[in-house]
Design goal:
The complex is a heterodimer of chains A (about 450) and B (about 475).
Chain A lengths: L2 E4 L9 E7 L6 E2 L4 E6 L4 E5 L4 E6 L5 E4 L3 E6 L12 E4 L20 E4 L10 H10 L17 H6 L19 H9 L18 H7 L16 H16 L2 E9 L1 H13 L7 H14 L6 E4 L2 E4 L5 E3 L1 E3 L2 E3 L2 E2 L7 H16 L5 H5 L3 E5 L18 E5 L3 E7 L2 E15 L5 H16 L8
Parallel strand pairs in A: 9-10, 14-18, 18-19
Antiparallel strand pairs in A: 1-8, 2-4, 2-7, 3-6, 4-5, 6-8, 7-9, 11-21, 12-13, 14-17, 15-16, 19-21, 20-21
Chain B lengths: L2 E6 L3 H12 L4 E5 L5 H6 L1 H22 L10 H25 L3 E4 L2 E5 L2 E4 L3 E10 L3 E3 L12 E2 L13 E5 L3 H12 L4 E5 L11 H13 L3 E3 L2 E9 L2 E8 L12 E3 L1 E4 L3 E3 L6 H4 L3 E2 L2 E2 L12 E3 L10 H15 L13 E3 L5 E5 L2 H6 L4 E7 L4 H5 L6 E7 L5 E7 L3 H13 L4 H6 L9 H9 L14
Parallel strand pairs in B: 1-2, 1-6, 2-3, 6-19, 8-15, 9-10, 9-15, 10-11
Antiparallel strand pairs in B: 4-5, 5-6, 7-16, 12-13, 13-14, 17-18, 20-21, 21-24, 22-23, 23-24
Helix pairs in contact in B: 1-8, 3-4, 3-5
The chains are: A alpha+beta (about 450), B alpha/beta (about 475).
Chain lengths: ~450, ~475
């Protein structure tokens, strides 16, 4: 039986994934549960397992292809089974960072996938007719100057557009004699050869002429362009998604951490090899506190608020080039020791890129601790689609008024950012207050 | 004024400047006190190459017999010297014909400045000129060595009057001249040739890889090389001479090499500018240790007086002089040209030859540049193998960001010709991309150029896969 290989949906906000590589060639047998391909998406690169056994018959997406969730990327079936008549899908391609040396063949006569280069026309202001027309003619909209309102490109603009000589990827100024080095310099500085004044009396433009025209060419490089890695791009996408959709409000509250420190000390005496951290304790206490405030452990979906029955505590982990948030499942039900062990394992695997999709996408609330970096308080950004996140500041000794006397206490500041679309200020404040109570009196979890 | 441009000296800088000035319509005279053609034609580039051409079959006879051609060479030194003089004479006559045909006056005699516009020739005739180009060249400079004024001690000029091949020869100076002389005398039959260099490698002004390649070439020829030493004393001993050597100061060579017994010594360590008797003090031209100071346009401190060629000390090479001479007269007539030393190739006509142009790694690092180097080993060149000379390398130095070719070194057969690709390329601000785009004939040695251009990114195709060096 023929089964479709689809781009999986991993997490609520995932819209598309990029194929990194295939582990099987067309014609090879794959067993259900065996890794079949690798994708990069929300924060990580991850292996996807085959959902059924059979021979990989056709590929619709080469490495580098960006496929929307549930988009078809291949077919698995019996060796000689007749293939269904499927119209090859058209996907974007972004070859950056893809090892081209091992591109598989696609298999299946007449079933070659059609892939187009990433369509940059989408971000440019143009009428739908102009976009369609430009696509037909294979013109990049960015090259057309719009004459409509606000620089919008009209269909007439597209039909009036005369392509420049572009056989070598050089602009019209390629007709002007210049040395190869001068050309590269000019291109880098975005200067057209037409504008450069020849001063040396030679018959062509030399690097010196470009340098004279662009005053800072001789200077030290003012900036370095760093291409975005997949993980950086994922963090970037998510953060802007969060910033653009969430209505964040941050509440701050100072808590006394004396009991936390005592508990940590006690655990260190009982389980010296486990090295339980303040963070491990916080995961437990905050998770228990959330049980009382279900709206803080929720997510917004279309026109409904989903209240999660489980409390999976996400912990922000800084990894090379980005940030990922694996989650400890059922944190409210686990012991601190168990949490500590799981947490260390998650962090270790986060840094070596060996987390599972489930671990990365199951979080229902997020803890971010910047105390180690000396931060007192901050405004954490919500990890969508979660409804709230808690930022932890550093523990510091300070004068504290207790029973009308000034005493020295270890304290820290909690910053709770919540999505005002889901929770209002008062319940959020109550939630933070519960967290404060548990942190200042950890034994209260036994009554929870 | 008698002339628009008067040129003192009919060597490479002078005669070419004369032709160029005439082409541009200037009334021009070249003043020469000796023979037209200068050191290059008469006592330098040309006659040494004529002798090295005789060395070639002698040195390659072994190679031919490996290929199945039995060759026994015998040298008639008198014929070789006569032919050398014929070549020199032919070229000299050609220079005169060129000057004549361009309408350049040739004035025989020694010039001396009276003022900045006036020259006295042989203390009799006086000529005046709007512009004057000093192109008086240089002469061998003998260092202070005890006993250097022996009968058997010669400067670089001494090889051209050689009537027989001395049995034991010492050459003091491991630069281009020393290496070429060692090649000549050894191939002509000298039993023992000792090459002494003050620095710790041969050709100290060139890329260090070139220096070590050249050492192998010399040693294969059977030449004894003494590095990091200088001659301290020359004394007569029996029918020959005894040459005492001592480590050059600051050298880490340690133990001194013992004295060398030789029949003839060539001292080819340096040169001095020919400025004596020019009356430069009369017009106040500034100079450093007698080398005339010029700016990049070749103008001296006196604004109608220019200096080109060896006499300004920038680059003591005939082809540098050619360019400087032309640039000087063009600038006199209103152009704004500058001389770029990095465009000047250096070539040593050993067998096989070596050549270099532009920067080497040391210079680039000193200039704080971000560079990449690509090396292609000619052992991987099919053509080098066919020729039976599979040794040497091609090395390209490029700027990391743009791939701009900054310099090149070539060691091996035809290096002196192959370097021309880079002479043109660097002048045209070429990047490695153009060298990769260019199609080179197969088989040919020039293919190595593209390979070296790929090697800049570790991608030479005809080399076993490994990193760039």
């Amino acid at each position: 039986m023929i089964s479709h290989v689809l781009m999986p949906k991993l997490g609520l906000v995932m819209k598309k994934g990029r194929i990194i590589k295939w582990y099987k060639k067309v014609g090879e047998y794959v067993k259900e549960g065996e890794p079949l391909f690798q994708i990069s998406t929300e924060k990580v690169t991850i292996d996807v397992e085959a959902k059924s056994s059979g021979y990989l018959r056709v590929l619709y997406a080469m490495p580098g292809t960006i496929v929307p969730v549930s988009g078809i990327i291949g077919l698995i079936g019996d060796k000689d089974e007749l293939l269904p008549d499927i119209k090859p899908p058209v996907y974007e391609i972004d070859k950056k960072g893809i090892d081209d040396s091992n591109v598989p063949n696609t298999g299946g006569a007449g079933l070659k996938p059609v892939s187009v280069d990433k369509d940059r026309n989408n971000d440019i202001k143009a009428s739908p007719a102009a976009k369609r027309f430009a696509k037909e003619k294979g013109i990049e909209l960015s090259k057309i100057k719009g004459t409509g309102p606000d620089g919008r490109i009209t269909e007439t603009d597209v039909s009036n557009y005369k392509p420049e000589e572009s056989t070598h990827g050089i602009d019209r100024s390629s007709g002007i004699p210049a040395t190869p080095y001068a050309r590269k310099l000019a291109q880098e500085h975005g200067v057209s050869m037409e504008h450069i004044v020849q001063t040396t009396g030679e018959r062509k433009i030399y690097a010196q002429d470009v340098a004279d025209f662009v005053p800072d060419t001789g200077a030290e490089e003012a900036s370095v362009l760093m291409p975005m890695t997949d993980i950086r791009r994922a963090v970037s996408d998510r953060m802007s998604y969060s910033a653009h959709t969430v209505a964040p409000v941050t509440l701050g509250m100072e808590v006394v951490a004396e009991e936390l420190l005592k508990l940590k000390y006690a655990l260190s005496l009982s389980y010296p090899s486990d090295k339980v951290t303040i963070n491990d304790i916080l995961v437990k206490l905050v998770a228990v506190a959330l049980k009382k405030h279900p709206l803080a452990n929720a997510s917004l979906e279309d026109n409904a608020i989903r209240i999660h029955k489980v409390i999976n505590m996400g912990i922000g982990v800084a990894v090379e080039g980005g940030l990922i948030v694996p989650a400890i499942s059922n944190a409210d039900k686990k012991s601190i020791l168990q949490i500590s062990r799981e947490s260390k394992d998650l962090i270790e695997r986060a840094k070596t890129g060996r987390l599972t999709l489930d671990e990365l996408s199951r979080g229902t609330f997020t803890l971010t601790n910047l105390g180690a970096f000396g931060i007192d308080m901050f405004t954490p950004i919500i990890n969508p689609p979660q409804s709230a996140t808690l930022g932890i500041g550093k523990i510091t000794k300070k004068p504290w008024v207790a029973d009308d006397k000034i005493e020295v206490r270890s304290t820290m500041v909690l910053s709770l950012t919540f999505d005002h679309r889901i929770i209002d200020g008062a319940p959020a404040a109550q939630c933070l207050l519960t967290i404060k109570q548990y942190l200042e009196n950890p034994y209260m979890v036994f009554g929870a | 004024m008698d002339y628009d441009i008067c040129i003192i000296g009919g060597g490479p800088a002078g005669y070419l400047a004369g032709i160029r000035a005439a082409q541009l319509g200037a009334k021009t005279a070249v003043i020469e006190m000796d023979e037209l053609g200068g050191v290059c034609t008469n006592r330098g580039c040309i006659p040494t190459k004529a002798l090295l051409e005789v060395s070639a079959p002698i040195l390659s006879s072994e190679k031919w017999s490996d290929m199945g051609v039995g060759v026994r060479c015998s040298l008639n030194i008198k014929t070789a010297m006569t032919r050398m003089n014929d070549v020199v004479g032919y070229i000299r006559a050609g220079i005169k014909a060129l000057l004549d045909s361009n309408g350049v006056d040739i004035i025989k005699g020694k010039a001396r400045f009276i003022d900045r516009y006036t020259l006295k020739i042989n203390d009799s005739q006086t000529v005046s000129s709007k512009f004057i180009l000093i192109a008086s060249g240089s002469s061998p400079a003998l260092p202070e060595i005890e006993g250097i004024k022996q009968e058997g001690v010669f400067s670089s000029d001494g090889i051209f009057t050689m009537k027989e091949v001395p049995e034991r020869v010492a050459i003091i100076g491991g630069g281009a001249i020393g290496i070429e002389y060692a090649t000549i005398v050894k191939s002509f039959g000298a039993k023992k040739v000792v090459l002494i260099e003050f620095m710790d490698r041969l050709l100290p002004l060139m890329d260090p890889d070139i220096g070590s390649y050249e050492k192998d070439v010399m040693e294969k020829l059977g030449i004894d090389i003494v590095l990091s030493h200088k001659a301290s004393r020359i004394s007569s001993s029996g029918k020959g001479m005894k040459l005492d050597l001592e480590p050059s100061s600051g050298s880490t060579a340690g133990r001194s090499t013992g004295p060398v017994d030789v029949d003839r010594i060539f001292v080819v360590t340096g040169r001095k500018p020919n400025t004596a008797g020019l009356g430069l003090e009369a017009i106040g031209v500034s100079a450093s240790k007698n080398w005339i100071d010029v700016n990049r346009a070749m103008r001296t401190s006196v604004d109608n007086v220019y200096a080109a060629g060896d006499v300004n000390g920038i680059k003591l090479l005939a082809h540098a002089a050619f360019h400087q001479g032309m640039i000087a007269v063009e600038n006199m007539l209103g152009a704004k040209k500058i001389f770029e030393p990095l465009l000047v190739p250096s070539v040593v006509y050993s067998k096989p030859p070596v050549a270099m142009i532009g920067m080497d790694e040391r210079a680039a690092q000193k200039a704080g540049m971000n560079i990449r180097t690509g090396i292609f080993d000619l052992a991987n060149s099919p053509m080098a193998l066919v020729h039976g000379e599979p040794s040497g390398f091609m090395k390209i130095l490029s700027d990391k960001k743009y791939g701009l070719v900054l310099g090149a070194s070539i060691a091996g057969e035809a290096a002196h010709e192959l370097i021309a690709v880079f002479a043109g390329g660097i002048a045209g601000e070429m990047t490695v991309d153009e060298l990769r785009k260019a199609v080179f004939a197969h088989p040919s040695l020039s293919e190595g150029i593209a390979e070296a251009a790929w090697a800049v990114d570790g991608l030479s195709q005809h080399a076993l896969k490994k990193g760039t060096s």
